[in-house]
Design brief:
24% of the residues lie in helices and 30% in strands. With 161 residues, it is of the alpha+beta class. It has a seven-stranded mixed beta sheet with strand order 1-2-3-4-5-7-6, sandwiched between helices.
Length: 161
C-alpha cells in the first residue's frame, strides 16, 4: 500500500542523498556533471526547506522507501501553475509494479489545481507514466525543446484529508 510522507527538516540528509542518486540516473538524459565533491548540482534544494510553496514527499510501499517527489509552483513555460512535478522517481528496484502510477495519482488527488509535468522524450518510462497519469485531464502539450515535453492541465479533484 502506497503512502506519502512529507519531507521535513529532519529528513534533509536523506532527501539530499536519494536526490543525488536520482540526478545521477538523469545523466542518461541530461549532460549534468558532478562537482569536486562528487555531487550533482540542484540549485533549489535548500528552498524545499525554506519556501512554503515547495513540497517534497517520500513515497513508501508499506514501510519501505521506494521513491520521492518534489513539487513547486514555478513554471517552465511562463504560466502560473499551482504545482509543477519538479522531480519524481520510483527507485529502479521497485519499478514495473505500478507504484509510480499509484503514487502520482495520490499526489494529484492531494493537490488539486493547475499543473505542469515535464519529461524528457528519451525517458520512455516517464513518457509512458505521465501520458497515462494526465490522460483523464486532457492535457495541453507543449514542447519546450526537441527533447522536453510539458503537459499542462487542471486537476479539479476533491482534496482528500
Amino acid at each position: 500500500m502506497i503512502h506519502l510522507q512529507k519531507v521535513e527538516e529532519k529528513d534533509r540528509d536523506l532527501l539530499f542523498s536519494i536526490n543525488q542518486k536520482y540526478l545521477y540516473e538523469m545523466t542518461n538524459f541530461y549532460p549534468d556533471e558532478m562537482d569536486e565533491q562528487g555531487n550533482y548540482g540542484y540549485g533549489h534544494f535548500e528552498e524545499y526547506f525554506t519556501d512554503p510553496r515547495r513540497i517534497a514527499y517520500f513515497i513508501y510501499d508499506g514501510g519501505v522507501l521506494t521513491g520521492f517527489a518534489m513539487l513547486c509552483p514555478y513554471s517552465n513555460i511562463g504560466q502560473d501553475p499551482d504545482f509543477i512535478m519538479a522531480e519524481f522517481t520510483i527507485f529502479p528496484a521497485f519499478r514495473r509494479r505500478h507504484l509510480a502510477l499509484e503514487a502520482a495519482q495520490m499526489i494529484l488527488e492531494k493537490h488539486p489545481g493547475k499543473w505542469e509535468i515535464k519529461y524528457n522524450e528519451k525517458n520512455i518510462g516517464a513518457k509512458k507514466l505521465w501520458t497515462m497519469v494526465t490522460e483523464p485531464f486532457t492535457p495541453q502539450v507543449c514542447h519546450l525543446n526537441e527533447e522536453e515535453t510539458i503537459f499542462t492541465f487542471v486537476n479539479d479533484a476533491m482534496k482528500e484529508g
